[in-house]
Amino acid sequence: MSNVSDKKTIILKRVLGLSSSVLLVAGIMIGTGIFKKVAPMAGSGLSSGYIIAAWIVAGIVTILGALSVSGLASLTTESGGEYEYIRIIFGNLIAFIFGWTCFTIIGSASVAAMSYLFTQSLNSIFHTTFLTDDFNIKITACVVIILLTWLNCLGTKKSALLNNTLTWFKIGGVLFLIIGGFFFFKTDLPVKETVALQHFSGVKLMGIFFAAMLSAFWAYDGWLSVAFISGEIKNPQKNVPVAIISGISLVMVLYVLLNWAFLKVIPLNHLANLNSNQIAAAEMSKQLFGNSGNFLISLLILISALGSLNGIIITYSRMYYKMAVDGFFFSKAAAVHSRYETPYMALIYAMFVSCMLVFSGSFDTLTDMIVFAGFLFYALLAYGFILMKRKGLISVKSFGYPYVQVIYILFSLLLMLNTCISQPKQTLFGIGLVLSGIPFYYFFKKNKTV
Questions:
Q1: In this predicted model, what pLDDT tens digit does every residue of 310-341 receive, in sequence order?
Q2: Which of 315, 343, 441, 446 is nearest to 8 (CA)?
């Protein structure tokens, strides 16, 4: 790549407005989870009402999280998002552990999971024998990651334009499914409601409901990612909070309506019996549009995965760039391309880790780890917001303060506890990756040159 400079005097420019920021939030959130996660939720034995409630409660909790931490945008106008907020509030060690967690789990695993599902959707459209083999799917997923990383190295405006275009396509596709499900469906599937719910009560019901919300939270994840790119957003102290709240609200309405349409068109027991390679949205599309339905939904999932994948690649790389500028990451990640003005080395580092994670595990394992780790730091940010308000360092008004923050923290702790009980191995592995950042922190601190 020509015209490259490692000088830190080259800075990232503010080229993104409010509309692009809102579409970036929505574009990252509307990925593949919305088309896939209703099936495991149905398989848990919950009734349709509880499934819809899980999506509504998860959406409300996400909005509470946004209200809890979006005010932190007033602390800084720099890139880095959560990393920068945590650094200002709790210091370099905790901030680095968060950044390292994103590098090893949250950000990189999101890219790995999205690229894998994107490649699966490719096979649904083209039906090539090459993509029937799992190893070939993973190799192709890595190629997709490499190509999108290259595109993002060519300029923020170009990658933002791609994100905006794909997000509008996604919103249109979801609305098309919702309208079809509510007004034009005709199903030949046997209508039979599950009766498993009657066996659930008390603590067991709560555990199953929280597990269902874990699936929903994966679909809602990514709402704070726009903060990572604050250094390239115009008037970030105003636009970042507005973009987050607006994006979440839009996505929540779409998610609830689409899942309602799923449950209206497809009998619950049929959803519960879908295997891991079957997608609820594809089943619904077949009922609405016949044989062409599989192609239509595969195309929509393809666009959704590509848009979300592109948005994640845009945003998380900016945090690694900020960590490197601070001297707590690989120093080369602080390089900005002199021609394209993008943090190209941070993008490349993230690309390599994401490609490794493509081969590490299943889609559901990766997404559950992401949600657990995400809520750990979301709760920390909500607590940090309370600290900053009490110290008078944040003067902006916050709806429901401090009750919204306290409720969000308690919910996050309850969700993490339930995850520890229901998925102990995955939880321990995730905690291990989080704690692995401690020795790396002291390594970078020892070799810090800035």
A1: 888 988 888 899 899 999 999 899 998 888 88
A2: 343
Assigned token pair, 244: 């987050």
Tokens 């950000």 identify what position? 107
| pLDDT tens figures, 269-316 | 888 887 766 778 877 887 777 777 778 887 888 888 888 888 889 888
Tokens at residue 234, please?
A: 């115009």
In the chain, what is the greatest distance between 2 CA atoms, to the nearest angstrom?
Answer: 67
Give the Cα separation of 403 and 144 in Å (integer): 43
Name residues whose C-beta falls within 8 Å of residue 388's C-beta, 6 or more positions apart in sequence.
72, 75, 89, 394
Task: For residues 270 and 272, give the distance between their C-alpha atoms in angstroms, rounded to a whole number.
Answer: 5
Can you give the pTM of this predicted structure? Answer: 0.78
What the chain holds in terms of domains, given with CATH numbers, is 4-446 (1.20.1740.10)
Neighbours of 117 (CB within 10 A): 25
For the chain, the straight-line distance linking the first and the last C-alpha, in angstroms and rounded, comes to 26
Contacts of 131 (CB under 8 A, 6+ apart): 119, 120, 122, 123, 137, 140
Helix (H, G, I), strand (E, B) or coil at 441: helix
Q: Which amino acid is at 291?
A: N
Positive or negative: CA dihedral 80, 85, 89, 94: negative
DSSP 16-58: B-HHHHHHHHHHHHSSSHHHHTHHHHHHTT--HHHHHHHHHHH
Spatial separation of the C-alpha atoms in residues 186 and 290, rounded to whole Å: 10
- Crossing angle for the helix pair 202-220 and 363-390, to the nearest 10 degrees: 90
Q: Which two tokens stand for residue 124?
A: 């649904």
